[in-house]
Amino acid sequence: MPQLFSFDLITRIGSVLFEATGAPADQARLVAEELATSSAMGHDSHGAIRIPEYIERVARGAIIPGAKFQVERTTGGTAIVDCGHNYGAVGAHFAMATAIELARQHKVACVVTRRCNHVGRVGAYVQRAAGDGLIAIATCSSPIHGHFVLPWGGTQGRLGTNPIAYAVPTGGDPIVADISTCVAPEGKIRVYKNQGKAVPEGWIVDARGRATTDPAAFYGPPLGAILPLGGPAGHKGYALGLLVEILGSSLAGLAATDPTVAGNGLCFLVVDPEAFCPIESFRSLVDATVAYIKSSNPGDGGGEVLVPGEIEFRTRRRRLVEGIPVDDPTWQAILQSARDLQVDLEPLLTTRR
Amino acid sequence: MPQLFSFDLITRIGSVLFEATGAPADQARLVAEELATSSAMGHDSHGAIRIPEYIERVARGAIIPGAKFQVERTTGGTAIVDCGHNYGAVGAHFAMATAIELARQHKVACVVTRRCNHVGRVGAYVQRAAGDGLIAIATCSSPIHGHFVLPWGGTQGRLGTNPIAYAVPTGGDPIVADISTCVAPEGKIRVYKNQGKAVPEGWIVDARGRATTDPAAFYGPPLGAILPLGGPAGHKGYALGLLVEILGSSLAGLAATDPTVAGNGLCFLVVDPEAFCPIESFRSLVDATVAYIKSSNPGDGGGEVLVPGEIEFRTRRRRLVEGIPVDDPTWQAILQSARDLQVDLEPLLTTRR
Prior knowledge:
The structure is a homodimer.
Chain A: E1 3-5, H1 7-20, H2 25-40, H3 50-60, E2 70-75, E3 78-82, H4 88-106, E4 108-114, H5 123-131, E5 135-141, E6 164-168, E7 175-179, H6 186-194, E8 204-205, E9 211-212, H7 215-219, E10 225-226, H8 234-248, E11 265-271, H9 279-294, H10 310-322, E12 324-326, H11 328-340, H12 346-350
Parallel strand pairs in A: 3-4
Antiparallel strand pairs in A: 1-12, 2-3, 4-11, 5-6, 5-11, 6-7, 8-9, 8-10
Helix pairs in contact in A: 1-2, 3-11, 4-5
């Protein structure tokens, strides 16, 4: 049975642990807040569960706490940001801050990253831009060891799950979409495997490219692959995944196959709607579009037409009141990380609600 | 049995007919060349078949040949282009030329259109940018009468087929993707209906939102709807389609439901890769990525791993030699258009190769 934690407590636990890895206080807090937010919004796979994982990555040398990050090159509305292998959220937020600043100047910006670690929920960064009244699109590629996804017509993975995220300001919560360009992320297949269950049809193939529902046939060895988004129209998901790869590696001057590349390759495209029409008009037009979309009858099945991000904002409102569930294996791993780092969490826990 | 025409002949027939509608010679030729190119690349549904359709649209007053088009507003790397209801290809090429110029200055550009007619193959415009060494992404929305596609969870169409196209320069032919964000465009369903065949499962629903394979249940009345891209992960296609709608209408200052809006709402995002790394390095990195993608074994089924656009460029090379097939109904409609416009096509046809 998962325990319930407050947003604040998860943030403070994460902060103190990341600080103990050598991260400056503000950076430790940024990463912790990002993970607590993912948990609050219901993306548990990108939330508190990553606290011990990130600490383990520091131990392996993959994450360099406090590493210098900087704008490496900037021309017009574009920039390359070198994240220096700092925590992914630190680099990604710096890259988005750079994109926002460039979008203010040039009304449209394009920023790509190098040496950026695992960024967590990509939606977080576009959501921030929408909070500033901007439209943002983000793509996020993975290095070669994460290439689980088939190119259309092939039998061996050549692309990451390659999410595309975007956010648009409205009169209320922004629209925030964050979708992988494959059928399902590898993490979900792992869950089925751990539960000894078959995955739904149309998700995976074995190492010879034959359709299967057996997660063991995917994990091999030899490794199988995940199908691109689209089912019979999987050439479309493949096309989108390829774009994400090119924007995340080639545009950053990196080879898709470079085994020394780690973490995520981000590309942020940010547009200032104010350049096109007054921001209040834009918000009203988006609100009217959302109302129109929602006027589509949900039909016999009941249910509701939602816009991307709506479930997550509802979940956040509820969990900020009711608490955020953290499962026991995650909590035990966090406690183990604290012991490894010789951090005493007791003072935080005794003040817990 | 379709007749075979040369690229040049289709272009000249289209040019003379569009000129007869009042289009200036250069604009008539641009539109005709665009349609001939679509036919040559195998996109027959966006090719010569549209010559009589466009002429009919002129007769209805939807297309205004020779109408003034202009940059309505420009700030930083952005612009709104008013296409003045000229032929769609004329407005769209002007919008892309504007985006290319802005991308040269600011290294990234975002251009949206107003009053743009049917643009044909969206891939054409991004392909042009890639020919200039630029990366381009295009989205294309439709007005309310083309809202055939379901929002996820709804039973009534609220979005167009809303394609996303992109092009990336390589060392050879560019990568050119052009995909709708739904399972299949309305035109394909019409083909099944005309042939009295059932459409594949997972394409359409009837007016009550119930899955069907009967095209008649889609056309109604009452009208059914097309499912978004993604099958069981159709929330992803829906999220992409919604982005296309917002970029095509809200960002251009237009309401999604405005019944007076006609034609397509384009958004072009253009990035100059030279701002990130030398263009020759970029081309080499993309070429290496393509080679890596193609190294995925096609498996027992045989076949081949292709990159987006590859089939189209092959088809073009073949059809430029062998001729471009034009089916008889299309040819008869073209001849009828010529009679309506009192244009004698004989001089063109007698010199035909």
